[in-house]
Amino acid sequence: MDWDDLRVFLAVVRAESLSGAGRALKCDAATVGRRVARLEEALGNALFVKSPQGYALTEAGGRLLPHAEAAEAAFAGAAEELSGTGRQLTGQLRIGAPDGCANYLLPQVCAEICDSHPGLEIQIVALPRVFNLSKREADMAIAVSPPTAGRLTVQKLVDYQLHLAAHESYLAAHPPILSRADLRAHRIVGYIADMIFDKELDYLAETRAEGVGLASNSVSVQMQMLRAGAGLGIVHDFALPFTPGVVRVLPEEIGLSRAFWLIRHADDRRSERLERLAAALGRGMRREVARLETLAAVGQGVGSPTRAVVAPGL
């Protein structure tokens, strides 16, 4: 069995089309089709069936998949060993993450990793949904809850805190908020209900509000709404130092704790390079969350002198 044919097989599995696999492999779809046919002939089994949704694995293809992925991991490990990447990490790493993490944590963490490993190229893909690692949309993904199915390796990265918050201008222009009951008179900023892709993001119950007045599927957009004085919303403490004027409201009454989880394909545990990158990512995330939450607790912005902020009406 030819490794190049297995590589083509994996590309079709992940792209679910010959043309998509061809783009990934930098060859035409006809060549991909011939290579798949050659592999099927050698194995004596059909590996794919074409459907309206694209190319789907047959039962035989499903049995071949873990072996092909193991071969891929073995080849990658051999390349790492021979190139000496045990000392300096090189190559490309794509990290998928929800946009709050991608906007407020990963830029600093990844910059630090790249400073230590100049030959490394890191790509951050920020999407408000769950990543499909089987299709290699990313090499590793960060999620707000651990998956319960699939051939995946899952490790907890860090706990983080969230609180109700609003801009000082909004608080100054609206009735005081002394208890949860007072929130009924205020506009709530939050997620679009039918676009919440993880139950851990459903914060509405914490405010006891009947609905969201301004909504977005993006954490960053929600934060911009708060900066514009549009209302109150549940926000990450680690984002507050980046948003001057946005302060916590009822912090003793309304507070949430969540966690980020690092998700990788199970076979990637065999790669020393990815193991080291995962460890570096975890260390950096824990340091950065601790640093930013400390700044948020004292009302200090990034790069600003320490200042204590008390929301009007509290």
UniProtKB/TrEMBL annotation:
Superkingdom assignment: Bacteria
Read off the InterPro entries from this record: LTTR, LysR_HTH_N, LysR_subst-bd, WH-like_DNA-bd_sf, WH_DNA-bd_sf
Q: Does the keyword DNA-binding apply?
A: yes
Q: SUPFAM superfamilies given for it?
A: Periplasmic binding protein-like II, Winged helix' DNA-binding domain
Domain named HTH lysR-type is located at 1-58
Keywords of the record, alphabetical order, are: DNA-binding, Transcription, Transcription regulation
The UniProt entry, under PROSITE patterns, shows: HTH_LYSR (PS50931)
Keyword Disulfide bond included in the entry's annotation: no
CDD domains the record matches: PBP2_LTTR_substrate (cd05466)
In the record, what terms sit under GO molecular function? Answer: DNA binding; DNA-binding transcription factor activity
Which protein family is it in?
Belongs to the LysR transcriptional regulatory family.
Q: PANTHER family, alphabetically?
A: TRANSCRIPTIONAL REGULATOR, TRANSCRIPTIONAL REGULATORY PROTEIN
This protein is called Transcriptional regulator, LysR family
Organism for this UniProt entry: Rhodobacter aestuarii
